[in-house]
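Board work, copied verbatim: C2H2-type domain-containing protein
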Amino acid sequence: MDEASARLLCPECGKNWQSAVSGLPHSRDLFHCPNCHASRQLAEFMRTDRDLETLQQFE
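↓ predict structure ↓
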């Protein structure tokens, strides 16, 4: 079985990456961009609504 993943996009620096959902915190938790260290709710880093829906299915 393939592991679910979500695509992320930093709203400040534009870094674009993909991460396994199992390694991500709750969508409302504070998350830090690994590139510029911007801090926001993880939901704000989701690239699309579909990525957010995928994350929320596993919360």
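Residues 49-57 form the longest helix (9 residues).
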